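LAB NOTEBOOK - FOLDING QUEUE
OPERATOR: T.R.
BATCH SIZE: 2
PURPOSE: Compare the predicted structure-token outputs for two unrelated chains run back to back under identical settings.
PRIORITY: normal
REVIEWER: second-year student, initials M.K.

ITEM 1
FIELD SEQUENCE / FIELD STRUCTURE:
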Amino acid sequence: MYLDSTVPIPEKHVVRITVKGVKYIYLERSREYDRDRKYNSAKRVCIGKQHQTDCSLMHPNQNFLRCFPGHEFPEQKSAFLRSSCLRIGSFLVLERIAGSLGLPEMIEQILGAGDGGLFMDFAAYSIVTEDNAAQYYPDYAYSHALFTQDMTIYSDTKISRLLQEMREDASARFLNDWNRSRDHRQRIYISYDSTNKNSQAGELQFVEFGHPKDDKGLPVFGYAVAYDRTNSIPLFYEQYPGSIVDVSQLEFMLGKAGSYGYANATFILDRGYFSKSNIRAMEERSHHFIIMVKGMHALVDSVIDEKRGTFENVRDNHIHRHSLYGTTVERRLYADDKKPRYIHLYYSVQREAAENGMIEKKLKAMRESMDRLKGTSYIFGPGFQKYFDLTYDNEGTFLMHEERKDVIERELGYCGYFCIVTSEKMSAKDALETYKSRDENEKLFRGDKSYLGDRSMRVHTDERTSSKILIEFVALIIRCRLYTHIRDAFKNDPSKPNYATVPAAIRELEKIEMSRGYDGVYRLDHAVTKRQKDILRCFGMDADMVRLRAEEIGGILTTQKRERGGN
């Protein structure tokens, strides 16, 4: 991101390199001897680009700030650099939600009044624009009401410094304060989910090539969020090296949950966290769990073989809401298990058809590959060997394949079945309903990746990455509350209006605007529409509240302009 200021080009150790007509300024920081090429090579870093008309000036970037930390820049932009049309609808709703959760106060206590407001504006920007790229934030600030004191618009330099210089303990302090504000007396159901975030640039300590869920050939880091299932609110997050698999991270999460005071917790986990060590870890901390089974084929298959034909068409076992059948058996998962667990077995006709189709599609693709490669020396891997007997001649030429019918038929016979394991006794229906409650949390989690522009991190330093992750987490908290308010308001509405989603509601709220008149005063541009009233009602707001807050905003901006010498 290039700053909106200009600085003199340093006199020493700079090189100008032209790319597509643009002259970039590089600072030579050192020279190292290359043993292979047998000469000294320069180590350079781009610190900005040359001004279009004045060759003695340049527009600096973040690298310039790191190389010349003592350089002073103006922090505030002119009050005149604000759009004559100001969008306030989304801001008013976000302001109300954030205030009800105490978020501005928490952030201000950590960062101070000035930086706290800018932090909240970044969070609002992520929600409204569905983006997290810092270079586009100034465009948002130009045309929106802001959380900053007196709605001040700050320069790119101030923004860059906030991201770069936010203290390392800011995240820890916020998470401590946020979780301290939760109700620890009631039993809590915690849904825990994780993803990988791609890194597009920079040498970050925790970015590694690992096991990406969305493989783009980029290094990744792990990112996990724990949700309060009951209140649909994020509790805390973790970031960890990309090479660490989900199943290995759970024990550390359990320790963190305990440090936040969640002693009476039941964890709802997907199959990626199923392991003997994780079950032991939860038991040692007196936590209960509801977890989808992964692997353990011998156990699962034995339960299926035992119960097959005894519950699939029994109406007492029918779980109507999900159109499937379920039953429960009590059994130890491992030979040295301290106590029996409750294994809930389910069968779905629709699931059987889908899984059957996937297997047949896979087998068809394998057969086509093998037919193409007949007469070659190609060696097929264990995936092919599992389903087919392969014949080669003495010279290693592939001749033919034949289905292993017993293997295929056995696998097809298990289609449509799945298991959930619980530590507490409950019915198959209750176990499924509780586990399915993760679906909403998964939607919220996908919201972080899809609606907050957070699939990839485009930053170059650990400090900036940590800052942006904290901002995005606060944004996720606010967006989750947006979602639950809208969901609850329209859940009994049979019409389900097309604006009853977070993105659609924001688009509609963005139409509530203030315009700057000839006298320089901002006023509400038009009356609030019926749609906008319906959305505002979700948050306990009405048109009068919008009008009064608009007058306050107009007064703030008018005062600000006069104090800075405006007309």
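ITEM 2
FIELD SEQUENCE / FIELD STRUCTURE:
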Amino acid sequence: MKKWIQKYKDLKYRYKLTIMMILCSLIPVCVISGYTQIRTVQIMREKEQIGLEQVLEQSVNSIDNRIQIYTNLINYLTYSSDLREIMEKEYSSDYEAYLAYTEIADPMFTMPQLYHEEIRSITLYTENIQVEHGNTLAPLSVAQNQTWYSKINEKGTVQWLVKQGNKKEILAVRKFYRQDSIQAMLVLTLDYNRVLEPFADLLTENRGGLILDEQENVVYSGYNMDKHYKPDKETSLKYLKEHYVCIEKKIEDTKWDFCLYQPKEELEKSVWTLLLGNIPVLLLCLLLILFLGYFFSRKMVERLEQLTENMNQINLGLRKVTVVSQSKDEIGVLVRTFTRMMEEINKLISQVYEAKIKLQKTEMKALQAQINPHFLYNSLSIINWKAIEADNEEISRITLSLSTYYRTSLNKGETMTIAANEIRNIDAYLHIQLVMHDNSFQVIKEIEEAALSYSVPKLILQPLVENAIEHGLDVSEKEEKWLKLSVCKEGDTLLMAVEDNGMGMSEEQARAMLTYRSKGYGVRNVNERITLLYGEEYHLRVKSRQGEGCRIEIVIPVNKEENRYE
């Protein structure tokens, strides 16, 4: 975790700002989208459930209305005086009973069937009837022999039963008591499919239905589903509630419990359809957030990056502010403050440089004043002649090189010379160095004769050569070492270069060589002299690789002068 935190800290400010803007935009969008999706799913589920409840309620109400009609019909017949007369009258013969059937019972029981097609028959089972008369009158013993008779309780209200078998029927039964014994029974037989048709019509694709009576006996069971949705226990209400979305409703008269069930997966289809439909919109919002975050962060940090780059250039030696901002925000204030600061620094640098130049000139003049050239040259001349008399050519050559070096260095106190004299001076210096180093390195020269007549600052090559020998060749373990001196004209500039194949340096060390972070003074002093003389566009160029060597180039404008020292 710490590693990732550190990586985040090391990121550029623009990337940090982009990440923060994206997160600040993305998190609220995700939260709002998530909440909206959850609420939409809940609403859709509630809507689907309400829809099931409504269709079930309409269907059950339709069945309940029919049940009410049949209940009212039975109650009406129950309290009919004609029907009471048939149950209580003692018939002397079957013929008398037959007359009661044809004159009273048959019209009374067949008339409702004309208005209600689902009524198959209305039958009165009574003790005083010994012979069945069609579907209207029958002895009570006939009812007692039916399979459904045992399911009837002792209540005196209308009871509802389902007659199972190949031909299912719904029975509405009302008992008539005489004291504690059953006197008669009125049975209304209904068409099973017609009565339950409104409920069966609800079982469209991937729906199922179950009707249970008060004793949890199955009144109706059916489903219309794909194979992978079919219930394993279609008559178990507990099972259906656990594995399906179930809607229940009861009818008080019949005590029937209606259950309409549907697979949970089917109910979720519409929800997933909505979610999948919203994914492209969410992805588009995400891409828009990413684009806007990157765009605005880049715009906001652009001037800050320009200022940072300008600071890096100033760190490398450039003293000019190239960033301009007129805005009144924090970055604008920072740019203007930095500009004013650099102006003050440049003023101070100019003042310091001027004072430094004056001091250098004074010190050089004082040094040159302390040295009596004639005395020095005469002394070196005597040493030379003594070496010749002693037949020691090496001492003679060193003496001549030293004499040449000081002649070109003192130069009558002048700060400028020509390239030819500078080369002559460095030749003398290199001769002395080769003797000191036992000729451990080779000197290579690539000099254009035409370039030797141009004016150059005095003693600008010697610090570079000294640096190349001390920090490049002396610390190198290479067998073949070399130092190359180049002078040529390139357009309107004069190029002077010192190159070696020594140890070299890293890019960071090369950049620091010309700044105040440099430990050495010689190379930096040459760079400062060139900048002061010719402007900030002219300076040393350092090219180096670790272990391969270093090349330092001096680039100055050309100014051809007559060679006064020839």
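REVIEWER COMMENT (ITEM 2): The domain at 415-566 is CATH 3.30.565.10 (Heat Shock Protein 90).
FOLLOW-UP: none requested
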